[in-house]
């Protein structure tokens, strides 16, 4: 909701037009209409449309006649006719688009409600308008205090001064009729101005004040929505939403207007679904609908007495069973239809990254420097060993001389076995001598 010339500064105020969001292109205001005919010139001999659209505080707009044939453009501050006195507003739309907007809102040029544009506002008119606008916030606080003191069941939501400062309009909301005759007397005595009380609905109040919805965006009623259609709880039932008033209510305390946006699509999709009240009669028992999935076209049924076991079937199969029941025929069971929609949710686990190891983070991390030092030491040791082998005598045969192969002798094998047997016998003898010496010492 902002234009290129109204980028916000450090303190949140727009830097381009420096008029708190009222820019020349009218791109950062509520309920704006893009003038796509602004760059096109009228054909020769055609006269521009005599009416203009003027915006006042909080998105309030009216159509006015340009009887003086003033050269007006979007963003001009003008003085308009009011009762009594005059009002000050900003032009939000000109040209042929005003004719389309008047036709859309059923406003006629020759009606008494379509008033005149007096002139372009002078500096004196703008100063008086700004001074009266500065009083509105303090007056609203004081007006609420007076209403609470008089114990009136009403809420004063906004105050709007007329451009010349001669009249103040108090917007309030109330659930019942309020007798505010005493309130007007105290307001006139307190503020010394002409007082007008105007009751608005809760949705109109939210549209005037604005705010942020649960979706994170600005309220639709304060940005682009102009007509308020009635919203019923049946819209939430068609969309299978939980009937929780805290979730379904908007900033105004009423049901959200966005519940009607997709209602037609849901109603068209539900035409192919059977009614949830109809029961399916099978040989196994009577099945009752528990849940529906509009987007995928599935329904879940449960047998009476077995409410924990749900059977998933498609809407086509449900219609087939209902037609069979009309002909006094029963299906064997719902499991026959549900078996076709069973999905294999089991997947084989594949350890690709090694995430199943609990000690994967316990392994010490070796740095690249240590690896480089180890590689250098290993290379140095291999070089030293190779040099020593080259220095020692080599058993390799010399070229040109044949090598004689000698077979192992049997004598050497026999001598080794005899020496082993002799050593064993000597050990046994030494053990016997030691045991004899011990016995003699004891005696």
Outline the fold blueprint:
Blueprint: E1 51-55, E2 61-65, E3 77-81, E4 86-93, H1 96-104, E5 115-120, H2 123-134, H3 136-149, E6 155-161, E7 167-173, H4 181-191, E8 194-199, H5 202-209, H6 220-223, H7 233-238, H8 245-248, H9 263-270, E9 280-281, E10 286-293, E11 298-303, E12 306-314, H10 315-326, H11 335-338, H12 368-391, H13 410-442
Parallel strand pairs: 2-5, 7-8
Antiparallel strand pairs: 1-2, 1-4, 3-4, 3-5, 6-7, 9-10, 10-11, 11-12
Helix pairs in contact: 3-4
Written account of the structure:
Among the domains are: 71 residues, no CATH class; 77 residues, GMP Synthetase, Chain A, domain 3; 43 residues, no CATH class; 70 residues, no CATH class. About 6% of the residues have low confidence. Helix 3 crosses helix 4. The protein has 443 residues and is of the alpha+beta class. The longest helix has 33 residues. A hairpin with a 5-residue loop joins strand 6 and strand 7. A five-stranded mixed barrel has the order 1-2-5-3-4. The chain has a four-stranded antiparallel β-sheet with strand order 9-10-11-12. The chain has a three-stranded mixed β-sheet with strand order 6-7-8, sandwiched between helices.
């Amino acid at each position: 909701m902002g234009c290129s010339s109204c980028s916000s500064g450090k303190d949140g105020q727009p830097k381009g037009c420096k008029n708190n969001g009222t820019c020349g292109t009218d791109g950062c205001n509520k309920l704006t209409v893009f003038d796509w005919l602004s760059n096109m010139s009228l054909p020769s001999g055609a006269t521009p449309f005599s009416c203009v659209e003027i915006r006042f505080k909080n998105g309030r707009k009216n159509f006015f006649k340009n009887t003086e044939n003033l050269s007006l453009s979007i963003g001009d501050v003008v003085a308009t006719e009011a009762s009594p006195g005059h009002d000050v507003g900003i032009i939000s739309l000109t040209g042929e688009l005003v004719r389309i907007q008047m036709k859309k809102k059923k406003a006629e040029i020759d009606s008494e409600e379509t008033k005149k544009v007096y002139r372009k506002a002078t500096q004196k008119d703008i100063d008086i308008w700004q001074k009266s606008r500065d009083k509105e916030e303090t007056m609203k606080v004081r007006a609420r205090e007076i209403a609470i003191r008089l114990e009136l069941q009403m809420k004063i939501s906004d105050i709007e001064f007329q451009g010349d400062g001669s009249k103040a309009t108090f917007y309030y909301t109330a659930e019942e009729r309020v007798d505010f005759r005493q309130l007007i007397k105290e307001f006139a005595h307190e503020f010394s101005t002409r007082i007008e009380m105007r009751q608005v609905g809760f949705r109109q109040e939210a549209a005037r004040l604005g705010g942020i919805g649960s979706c994170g965006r600005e309220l639709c009623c304060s940005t682009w929505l102009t007509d308020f259609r009635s919203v019923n709880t049946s819209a939430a039932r068609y969309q299978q939403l939980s009937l929780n008033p805290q979730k379904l209510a908007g900033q105004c305390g009423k049901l959200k207007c966005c519940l009607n946006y997709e209602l037609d699509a849901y109603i068209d999709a539900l035409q192919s679904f059977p009614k949830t009240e109809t029961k399916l009669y099978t040989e196994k028992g009577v099945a009752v609908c528990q849940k529906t999935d509009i987007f995928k076209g599935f329904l879940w049924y449960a047998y009476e007495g077995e409410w924990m076991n749900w059977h998933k079937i498609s809407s086509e199969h449900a219609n087939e069973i209902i037609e069979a029941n009309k002909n006094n025929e029963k299906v064997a069971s719902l499991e026959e239809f549900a078996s076709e929609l069973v999905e294999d949710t089991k997947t084989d686990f594949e350890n690709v990254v090694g995430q199943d190891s609990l000690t994967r983070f316990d392994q010490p991390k070796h740095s690249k420097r240590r690896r480089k030092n180890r590689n250098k030491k290993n290379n140095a040791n291999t070089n030293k060993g190779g040099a020593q082998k080259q220095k020692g005598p080599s058993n390799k045969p010399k070229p040109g001389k044949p090598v004689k192969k000698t077979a192992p002798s049997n004598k050497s094998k026999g001598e080794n076995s005899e020496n082993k047997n002799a050593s064993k016998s000597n050990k046994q003898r030494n053990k016997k001598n030691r045991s004899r010496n011990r016995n003699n010492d004891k005696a």
